[in-house]
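Q: A reviewer asked whether we had any structural model of the full assembly, not just the individual parts. We don't, so I'm hoping you can provide one. Inputs are below.
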Amino acid sequence: MLEVEDLACLKGDRLLFRDLALRLQAGELLRIAGPNGVGKTSLLRLVTGLALPEAGEIRWRGESIRREREAFHRELLYLGHAPAINDLLSPLENLRFACAAAGDEVDADSCMQALVRIGLENQLDLPARVLSQGQRRRVSLARLFLSGRRALWVLDEPFTALDVKAVADLAQALSEHCAAGGMVMLTTHQDAPFALTPRVLDVGAYAC
Amino acid sequence: MLSTFLAVLRRDLLLAWRGRADVLVTLAFFVIVVCLFPFGVGAEPNQLRAIAPGVLWVAALLACLLSLHRLFAQDYADGTLEQLLLSSEPAALWVTAKVLAFWLSTGLPVVAVAPGLALLLDLEQGALPVLVLSLALGTPILGLLGAVGAALTLGLRGGGMLLALLVLPLFVPVLIFGAGAVEAEMSGSGAAAHLLLLGGGLAGALALAPWACAAALRITTD
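A: Here is a predicted structure for the entire assembly that you could use as a starting point for your response.
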């Protein structure tokens, strides 16, 4: 489904990695590993199409993602390092906007249920600036329950700042997504209790 | 197709309302700059009347410039911009929504208080409708052109200063035809030509600037 070939990433004037290839099939969970600064986040941004590769090609369902950008983005859910939460809006407003901006038709009730499910039932109407780091992370993760039909999830350090129970819940949600034929690509330095063993890609092996 | 447009518009207007102090600062800046002129050039009514269109237009332009850097800065910092760029809707569409919300929250108040300030500078009452019309047509152009500059200078150190250098020259034609419209009306030669040119400029900017802005945003977030 997702194919990456001969990928090279240039950051400033430094080549981070080159000749990177990967293939992701339906139902697979891929963990991007490697030490800090090796280019894990850069790889995820390349795969989402937010950044342009120095060389190489990325294909989704056989089509280059640059040529079929809109079709690809309809099936992609990317949660980056920054949680995309505005301080002046409540978690509910933030979540509704995130869904609407991505083009998902989601009503207020489903958003509320997603936030309750992720453990924010007491913070629904508070401005996001009073939330803790972990709670902010949860607001953006709530989108996973609303945009589930998107096949490819690309998650940058999703477990950061989450407590033990939330990590277990998230790992379960990711496993369920894969079991339903979805694909997950994530970076993490944490051990999470996945139901299936993730395949590991070490970016360090392709470093220059 | 319109859902992203409406979602961005609604959110940005809500944010402008919650952060209304920023909007009021822009408006207060506009009022104060205009009020400084009588102190600087003397309270001679004939002289004030002659410089009123230019003063009001330059003040409106600076007020717009003052708030332009806020257009994308917060969304860039918190990651919302990345999410918007990953939307399956065309980026030019939600860029237009952002500029529209920006104009409604900073341009429209300036247009609304301009007639009062014009009277303060003893502008003929007959020229007030032309002043309002020229500002209503011209300030959206400033917003659209400025959005391209704001997108290009996003995340740069000293971006605000660079933004001013980048967009102020582009504002010159708008200033010439905007202030020119009011002067033409005062001199009795009619403002229609100036206003039509401003209208044409707005149509052109509306058609082109969102695409340029979207392309610039893709470059700066790369």
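A: Points you may want to mention in the reply: Residues 2-221 of chain B form one domain. The interface with chain A takes residues 3-4, 6-8, 11, 14-15, 18-19, 74-75, 77-80, 82-90, 94, 221-222 of chain B (CB under 8 Å).
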